[in-house]
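Re: the pair you flagged

First of the two:
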Amino acid sequence: MAATLEQRLAAIRAASEKQIPEDAQKIMHRVTEELQRSGQAEKAIGEGDQAPAFTLPNQDGKIVSSDELLSQGPLVLSFFRGHW
């Protein structure tokens, strides 16, 4: 039987915990809790919401606009917290 998304995400979290040093995990958890307490999470756009137009550098440093990307088809955004 195929794993659910929730089960797959739990497996990814468990594997990450083995690779990320404990002191870094503590910082990540503390910052996540601070963000949740700040109320900013409730202000974030949700799945299916329309994001405002934006212009940002891509992974190669090239400036791209959401309008330009959307003209080529559907757009998926992925956010990550950093490199470790």
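Second of the two:
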Amino acid sequence: MMQHQYIERASGRIVTERLFGDRMVQLLYHGLRENNAALFRMLTSSWSSQILGLVNFDRPVLFKRAFLADCGIDLSECLDPPEQLDTPRKIFERKIRYRECRLMPDDRDVVLSPADARVLVGSFLETSMIFLKEKFFSFEELLGNDNTVWHDAFAGGDFAVFRLTPDKYHYNHTPVSGQVIDFYAIDGAYHSCNPSAVVAVATPYSKNKRVVTIIDTDVPQGTGVGLVAMVEVVALMIGDIVQAYSTEGYDAPQQIEKGMFLHKGQPKSLYRPGSSTDILIFQQGRIDFAADIYYNMRRTNVSSRFTKGFHKPLVETDIRVRSLLGRARKTSTTGAQPLTA
């Protein structure tokens, strides 16, 4: 079975990922999917996902120290006392001291990572160096086939896909500042975000249950990167996406509504729990992604299942929530470009 590697952003190291439930995913997507379509549909349904979540995440942790070490979770970041984190669910839904542990750049034009995740960036524009049309999703289907106004707004734009693994901090934070001009949910399946599953199923992210938030950042105190679509996508064993926007810590969480102004870097929502995916979509010519993300994607000395499955170098960068993803472009030109400074 081919290993899957990514680049650790802070150190530049090549890391081999231990994929949770990899054997089960291989059986599901390369066995049952091909030989028993009805059973495959049942196992990627909401009901099955919730049952798997209960079995895997709500039992007491018997060997917590070993479990936390195996997952690489740093309890010193957590707000809750360690003794209260006694089930996998509580550990995966943990709150952290993000203002101290996840520092963010102060510049107004910076776009932030919405999650602790592994990221790839791409473009819908054929002339772009990162053209990846319909590898991970159909953006028309992702945003909802009836929402043609958003199809037109984001045509030829750029995107970033953030893959959250089960061990990650599972709060999403707002990547930009701006006003919510649309917010809606789309029903769907619960496909795994394991790289093998993503490669096996055509455009899986636009087939899963998801929540879409459209943010206008060209407003006073906004980031100035145009319209941004933030799409939160459930995956296998994710029971729900809880909207919980807070302006101060995690206090007084609010449901996202049209007309709200969202401040960059604040908690926005929580996945319950497991693996999941965030997708950010930008209008054409409005963002320059960080240069290291571009560089890492094209590396040929890293063993990535995305590279093998899509027949071009596609290597993820492990990125932290509230860190630099890119900057608003000063002048609108064709296709996203890497930042050089």
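Residues 5-328 form one domain.

-B.
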